[in-house]
Specification:
alpha+beta; flat
Length: about 400
């Protein structure tokens, strides 16, 4: 099992994407019209610093998340925030500040600041817009993400099943309905960073334009030729988009949302996954019995308030399993939702430390909450759980993965 802790921080900057020794046409093909922004254009960036390591048995923390903010913000303020990156940051004097290169440079700059702790910086993820983000990992692997949207109508059903089988499996969803889909395409490279983007603008923009023309405002069951003999499910549609994009550029994986809280993933190893987000509300107090009151107050700060405090936690459960091509389904959505609801119900509107048994002897840190929740959901899903995320706030995320 791999546990990570992520801290979200924001910064704003301007930049120009251009390589000096390339021609105008080469820059335009690589970066698109933005390359013509002579004095730069701006982005509101969001950076996620992702740490991994052992959880301290006494304080329940992999890393003190306030330390991430304090140390990483020094780098952001000094080198990135409110800067014209091409000139104010020496790292981008010759290298274009693409989101891929910004993610890589943030990792390079921030990782050494944590050489004195047991946790290590595993990755840095940077989002520059709702449509573009990138991740740089400690092994120098990198990912570039492109999002695109389309709206379409469908009947959830499989042409390989009888009417009775479709009705039994999909219920009311067999009626005509629609979704505002949002897809994330993830491309990966083993070595990350350089003048050229991971995927050129002219290639990705042409591919996404073709996908929108094919899918947007269509009745998927009847108007998309490539889907005529396929099940019309979120899993099957994600698989179809993966195949279409992979012909143009090798694609590592796709995540297709039919709702903000529900998605299917298809990966290049043919793995298919379903994810569902679900919130719960609870109170807690960070306090370790082995420490004095003064030590607890110093360690946990305002989270040690004697009267407690609370959060609207958000969980994200991602399940794997055997994908059934005949029905186009991986997992029964109702079963997935029920497993999560039943697991969260004992914590809903409760004080985790005072009204549950899970945190009688351990602090209710995000690390311990996600570790306590894993077996509850996993056992209900027949050990098909592959990833579990917990947002304590929009800025603090805890993730447990099956390795």
């Amino acid at each position: 099992m791999l546990l990570t802790v992520s801290k979200r921080l924001e910064f704003s900057a301007s930049r120009r994407l251009r390589v000096k020794h390339w021609s105008d046409s080469e820059n335009l093909a690589a970066f698109g019209p933005e390359t013509e922004a002579r004095y730069g254009t701006g982005r509101n960036y969001v950076a996620y610093f992702v740490f991994t390591g052992p959880v301290h048995p006494s304080n329940g923390m992999l890393i003190n998340i306030s330390e991430i903010k304090e140390r990483a913000e020094k780098i952001l303020r000094a080198r990135f925030d409110h800067k014209f990156l091409n000139q104010d940051n020496p790292s981008f004097r010759e290298l274009p500040p693409t989101v891929e290169n910004v993610a890589r440079q943030l990792y390079v700059d921030v990782a050494p600041l944590f050489s004195d702790v047991d946790a290590t910086l595993a990755a840095c993820h940077v989002s520059e817009s709702p449509d573009r983000s990138a991740t740089f990992y400690s092994d120098s692997t990198g990912e570039a993400n492109y999002w695109f949207e389309f709206s379409a109508a469908r009947r959830t059903m499989s042409p390989h099943l009888s009417e009775e089988e479709n009705a039994s499996l999909f219920g009311p969803a067999t009626s005509l309905h629609g979704h505002n889909y949002r897809a994330r395409l993830t491309f990966r490279a083993e070595r990350f960073g350089g003048e050229a983007p991971l995927v050129r603008y002219d290639i990705i923009s042409t591919g996404l334009r073709a996908l929108r023309e094919e899918l947007d405002h269509r009745y998927l069951n009847q108007e998309v030729v490539g889907l005529k003999n396929r099940p019309i499910t979120t899993e099957s549609l994600a698989e179809y988009i993966y195949e279409r994009v992979n012909v143009l550029v090798p694609l590592h994986h796709i995540r297709l949302h039919e709702r903000d809280d529900f998605f299917a993933e298809v990966r290049n190893d043919k793995g298919v996954f379903l994810g569902l987000q679900m919130p719960f509300n609870a109170a807690h107090r960070l306090h370790a019995a082995c420490f004095s009151d003064a030590e607890n107050a110093k360690l946990y700060g305002k989270c040690n308030n004697p009267l407690g405090h609370g959060h609207r936690y958000v969980t994200e459960t991602t399940a794997g399993g055997e994908y059934d091509k005949r029905s186009g389904t991986l997992y029964d959505f109702i079963v997935l939702r029920r497993a999560i609801e039943e697991s969260l119900r004992p914590w809903q509107d409760r004080h985790l430390d005072l009204e549950t048994d899970d945190f009688r002897d351990v602090p209710s840190t995000g690390e311990n909450i996600v570790r306590a929740l894993w077996p509850k959901i996993d056992n209900r899903l027949k050990q098909q759980l592959v990833r579990l995320r917990l947002w304590e706030t929009a800025n603090n995320r805890f993730t447990l993965r099956r390795t």
